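Worked example 3 (structure in, sequence out).
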């Protein structure tokens, strides 16, 4: 399996890419308007990336459920930027909406996904859809509905999201989703917090051993940004976070 580094949003992206190149198989970046990724510019990112493999993630804050031209323009702008720096493998997250019933939530996401799918198709971008923490997109049925309507779209299984709120739902996704995941997002979670480091290597290995048995050729992005301290989620400082990621990576290479 190939393991990738997911940069923290508040860090300098160029430094994060350099760290990824030294230690990981690929880098997976999220574009945030106004953040370093946007301010640094295309040429600088292209230069530091070189031929290093990279994936992209459209920021989850965009609301695909309200059929908004503004939201779509922002999403397409991100995809266009990814394409311009050579990123051709992108994950997008469906949007939740507490004001809509499940069926309406699905139908409201469809036009947005159609725009995104068409842009990706025309620009040779491989598009993935990701499961969420909350209902309905934390269930295989909703993901299957999107994959049915957009048969060229692939599936990213966010393992951390599947561990949040209830344990061990990833086997159901691997068994019941109509497409085998070609990409995984790895992090721990509990009832209240997500994107945590694994404090028990046995748990991480159990999850990844099962995943590897189902798809040994998939890519895995380590999305670890926080720790729990005094019951609260706290951002990991750069040095601590990188050391944790290197420790996780060593365990995965040696024992998986």
């Amino acid at each position: 399996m190939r393991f990738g580094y997911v940069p923290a949003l508040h860090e300098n992206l160029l430094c994060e890419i350099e760290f990824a190149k030294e230690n990981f198989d690929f880098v997976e970046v999220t574009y945030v308007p106004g953040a370093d990724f946007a301010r640094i510019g295309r040429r600088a990112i292209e230069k530091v990336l070189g031929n290093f493999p990279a994936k992209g993630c459209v920021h989850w804050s965009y609301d695909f459920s309200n059929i908004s031209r503004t939201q779509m323009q922002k999403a397409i702008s991100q995809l266009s930027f990814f394409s311009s720096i050579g990123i051709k493998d992108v994950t997008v997250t469906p949007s939740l909406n507490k004001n809509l019933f499940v069926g309406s939530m699905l139908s409201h996401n469809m036009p947005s996904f159609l725009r995104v799918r068409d842009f990706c198709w025309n620009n040779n971008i491989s598009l993935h859809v990701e499961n969420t923490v909350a209902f309905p997109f934390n269930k295989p049925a909703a993901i299957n509905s999107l994959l049915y309507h957009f048969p060229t779209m692939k599936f990213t299984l966010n393992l951390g999201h599947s561990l949040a709120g209830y344990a061990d739902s990833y086997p159901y996704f691997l068994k019941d989703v109509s497409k085998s995941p070609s990409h995984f997002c790895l992090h721990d979670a509990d009832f209240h917090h997500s994107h945590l480091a694994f404090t028990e290597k046995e748990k991480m290995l159990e999850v990844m051993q099962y995943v590897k048995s189902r798809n040994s050729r998939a890519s895995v992005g380590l999305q670890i940004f926080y720790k729990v301290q005094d019951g609260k989620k706290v951002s990991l400082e750069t040095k601590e976070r990188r050391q944790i990621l290197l420790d996780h990576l060593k365990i995965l290479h040696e024992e998986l």
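Notes: DSSP finds ten helices and ten strands in the chain. The domain at 2-181 is CATH 3.20.20.150 (TIM Barrel).
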